Structures are given as structure tokens and as C-alpha cells.
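Budget justification aside, the reviewers requested a transparent look at the raw inputs and outputs of the sequence design task funded under Objective 1. We therefore reproduce one unedited record. The lines immediately below are the C-alpha cells for a 200-residue chain.
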């Protein structure tokens, strides 16, 4: 009888541990990121005044990748960003905006993580200007610096679903001067890690 009770306790602890790990590392990131209490909506089409923070002098559209090195979702997203830069780097200006309040990383550290030499900015006010409150998030500004897209990269956490490459669809639409694409709520609702720290 004692052995049976110990076995039940052990199995309960094991099951509880597995459940906790699944929640911590997987399930909670499938839930929408809570909207901050003082969040101010920034509408698509709004002129984004970044007061020279981007140092982008060309008339190319700008792609801002909002990134937190400590966010698991951001880390899974790195290969996808690399592929977008390699495919569209001559047509758009890409920049990585690091959103980690106490960042211990340098611009070179971030570039090494991505294996890219795109500019890296450490400025949360850019996220506020664009209406971003979680990572990873994609923001596309057209050549007139109007907000064209703000949302997720893909329905899949690993960016493995080609049919829901939301950010890429938005890029193609902008570059082809076609009508703004319409996306479902999964594309436009924030998922991932909250700001300014990696919490859910």
C-alpha cells in the first residue's frame, strides 16, 4: 500500500512538472499578449514621426523587426528574419529594434545572432510610436513613412506555414503597389513576450 501511494505521488509530481514545462515553454505563447493598461492605438495609415531615429535617408520602405533576445518567440523567429532580409534587402531598409529594458547586448551581439549587418536600435520609444507592445512583431512603413503593417510574422510559432507568412505577404503587397492585404485577427493581434521585459 505504501509503495502504491509513493508511486501515485511520484506520478503526480512528474505529470505536474511536465504540465508546468509545457505551459512555460509552449502553451502560454499561443495566447494573445495582454494589452497594456495605458496602450494607445496607432492606426494603419498613420504618419509615423520617428524624429530621425531611424537614420534612413533613402525613399525605400522600412521594415522594423521588434526583437527581445530573451524572448523564446523572438529566438525562434531569427531564421525567418534572415530569409526576409536576404530576399528583400535591396528593396527595403531593414532594422532591428531591441526591446529589452536592461539589455546586456551590443549592436554587434545582435548582428551576430542574426548573422546580418542591418542596423540595430535600442529605443523603446520606436515601439510606442508604432503601437508595438510585444515581441516579435513586424512593422512596415511605406516610402512616405506611413504605417502599412503591424503584426505577426506567421500563424506558426516557427514561421513554418507558408500560407500564413503575414509579414511577407504585406511586403509583397507594398512592393507590388497592390491593395492593402486584409488579414485575420491572428495576423494582427499581438502574440509573444510582453514589454519591456520578457514576461507573459
Amino acid at each position: 500500500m505504501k509503495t502504491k501511494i509513493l508511486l501515485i505521488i511520484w506520478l503526480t509530481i512528474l505529470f505536474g512538472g511536465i504540465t508546468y514545462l509545457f505551459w512555460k515553454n509552449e502553451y502560454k505563447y499561443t495566447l494573445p499578449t495582454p494589452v497594456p493598461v495605458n496602450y494607445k492605438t496607432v492606426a494603419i495609415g498613420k504618419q509615423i514621426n520617428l524624429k530621425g531615429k531611424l537614420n534612413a535617408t533613402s525613399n525605400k520602405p522600412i521594415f522594423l523587426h521588434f526583437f527581445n533576445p530573451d524572448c523564446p518567440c523572438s529566438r525562434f523567429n531569427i531564421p525567418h528574419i534572415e530569409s526576409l532580409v536576404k530576399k528583400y534587402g535591396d528593396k527595403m531598409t531593414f532594422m532591428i529594434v531591441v526591446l529589452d529594458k536592461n539589455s546586456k547586448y551590443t549592436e554587434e551581439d545582435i548582428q551576430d545572432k542574426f548573422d546580418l549587418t542591418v542596423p540595430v536600435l535600442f529605443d523603446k520609444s520606436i515601439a510606442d510610436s508604432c503601437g508595438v507592445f510585444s515581441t516579435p512583431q513586424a512593422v512596415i512603413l511605406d516610402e512616405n513613412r506611413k504605417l502599412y503593417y503591424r503584426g505577426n510574422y506567421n500563424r506558426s510559432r516557427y514561421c513554418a506555414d507558408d500560407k500564413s507568412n503575414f509579414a511577407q505577404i504585406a511586403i509583397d503587397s507594398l512592393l507590388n503597389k497592390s491593395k492593402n492585404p486584409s488579414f485575420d485577427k491572428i495576423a494582427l493581434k499581438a502574440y509573444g513576450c510582453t514589454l519591456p521585459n520578457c514576461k507573459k
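The chain has six helices and seven strands. The chain has a mean pLDDT of 81. Computational costs for records of this kind are itemized in the attached budget.
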